Amino acid sequence: MPASVLDESQTVFAQAERLFTPAQIEAAINHMADEINTHLSNTNPLVLGVMIGGMVPTGLLLPRFRFPLQVDYLHVTRYHGETSGGQLRWIKHPDIPLKDRSVLVIDDVLDEGITLSAITEACKAEGAHKVLTAVLVEKDLRRPAGLPRADFVGLRAENRYLFGYGMDFKNYLRNADGIYAVRQ
Predict the structure, then answer these.
(1) pTM of the model
(2) Per the structure, how many domains does the chain have?
């Protein structure tokens, strides 16, 4: 009988390699916040957290912003609790109108860029004046032509399956005490 996803996630965590400690992550968040403060002060931006993974970096960044802003969220996924991406599915669009706004989209990780590209295009289609993106981790990998890089990046990591600080392994381990890579 195969192990449950809970059992599997516990095994994955026990064998994982921690790539970034909480102190390293906090330093990266501080650096990102400084950059974002410089770029978005006096713009009255709308900050959009991408659920579910973007919940943690959004929550860490918000108190560090030194300018007026509004906050909303969106929920779009390609993973559906799996470890590889599939069909893009929109679950929730922002409630606050994007028309003529500067928008900052915050997510946990940038892999290929398919989801981030779709989000950026959706914001522009809703009339956003400017769309900037921030990710806690950007993976070092070749992205297909035309897919974006993030405007603000906290950490860079090799192309491995990551979890912790919002990133999950089959809907578990988002709360890990660092950013970990699944043992290869």
Answers:
(1) 0.92
(2) 1
